[in-house]
Amino acid sequence: MTPSARLSRPSAPPTGTFDTTSDCRVRGRLSSLRSDVPGSGGGFDLGLLSPVTAGHEDPVSDVAVLEALVAAEIHLVEAFAAVGGLDQVPDRQRVLDEARELASHSFVERGAPATSRDAETPAGIEPRDLALAAVAGGNPVIPLVKELKRVAGPAVKPWVHRGATSQDILDTALMIVAKDAAGHVLAGLDLAIDALDRFAREHRGEVAAARTLTQHAVPTTTGLRAATWARAIRRARLRLTATRDALPAQLGGAGGTLASFVQLLGPDRAARLPVAYADAAGLAAPDAPWHTMRWPVTELGDALVQAIDALGVLAADVATLSRTEIGELAEGTGGGSSAMPQKQNPARSVMIRSAALRAPHLGATLHTAAALAVDERPDGAWHAEWPTLRELLRLALGASAHAAALAEGLRGDAVAVARNLEATRGLLIAERLSIVLGPIIGADAVSEIVRAASLGSDLALLVHNALDAANTAVPHSLDDLLDPAAYTGLAHYLVDGELGEGPFGLGTGAIEIVDPTAPAAEPEHGPYDPFDDGSQLPAAPPRPRGFDPFADPFTS
């Protein structure tokens, strides 16, 4: 008997009629194409319209979800055994062995040979059949349990899904899928961070024009730009790692009270069952059922959005700086054009940006669903999470993989950087002139220098003449004053600090995630004493000196 016969499948709706033989031939060819694609499920979404995710969806595919659902059922049996729930069973080991054999029934691919689909003991369940059978009850666990009990051995059959509710299994399965997918995302982020760190080192001293609100502003370095991208991605990685490691199993029974497990095991063993279930599933132990408190989903969504945000900034900057008229950066392998063979489009940046534009709205949907998770089990809000979380994971998988490739192949053009640095004829250091010359010749005189230089006058000559007119000796360091390389502030230290080598000691992981609910530490000098005469107050910190633009902050 085939899975299609076992799982009730509604008839397909009418698809319309074709008036010509040609139309019929085209339709037939397209139908044949769909049926030839392995695991296509009718070819609904293979990534044709989502190039950023194409080829990276396996960890969150329907097959992965189905395997996790079956695993969640198996882990429940293992949890019963771990707390002693099977101690009175005549053959405890046989129950566990038969439970683990259920994994072999988790999946059969559409188009599998008849020998596996029609055998007396079938190879598994076709995801499409399970999806259609899930319509009647609103979730796939209901028909899955029916099928698992049909194929289960006699010893384990009474223990399949025992005491659990559909949400226990589906939530746990989604956390299993999410934890695995997050591991793949983190691997991509690590590769991107490592590549950007190398790029930052290589371009540490390359002075470039910083742009604010699209306009040239002050000098920076190409290295600092890359270190800033890496810093944001590293921060997102830390948060995603912490979130992944905290993803909990779900086990609460029908109303979140664990009443069924108390009835089956007694209160002591029932209280230990969620921890045993989490251990078996490789997840964190829940402090309580979270059927309607959806923080595991929203926190995961937020961490994924933050990671995609950071990758989106990298992609947006690379796309901008690779414009023909700027040309400071280029992807290792540019994308082509169907009509313009000369183009080398920043294809990876474009794809990552598409993910960054979509991700925040998916995160917002998760929050909306969480806010509407009413009663003890949600009606519709829970269901809205499933495809939303899966799509967000899918985007993170694709964006992180493309970001790793983008960062590893990123190329800089020092000639273009230098050309753009001179585009404003020295006015990148206008801020410095205001700070240094303002007290000497006045703010209005500095503004006039900047205005004249912007119209084409020689900046060095303007400064020299202004100082001479003010009866101020022209310093020998005038060239240094006008040198953009001398006004990059702490850029090189920030690059080194990001890489764990600089005086700031920032390190590669020196970001502490603070619990905002933790009580504040007591001040060292103790509580306020209204009778204290002031002699016990802590010493005032040393007063900072006035700012000296020519001082070296690391020798003073």
From TrEMBL:
Signal peptide: none annotated. Pfam families: Lyase_1. Residues 1-10 have a biased composition (Low complexity). Keywords: Lyase. Residues 1-23, 517-556 are annotated as: Disordered. The keyword Zinc does not apply. One of its GO terms (molecular function) is lyase activity. Residues 154-358 form the Fumarate lyase N-terminal domain. It comes from the Bacteria. Belongs to the class-II fumarase/aspartase family. This is Adenylosuccinate lyase. It comes from Microbacterium stercoris. The lineage of its organism: Bacteria, Bacillati, Actinomycetota, Actinomycetes, Micrococcales.
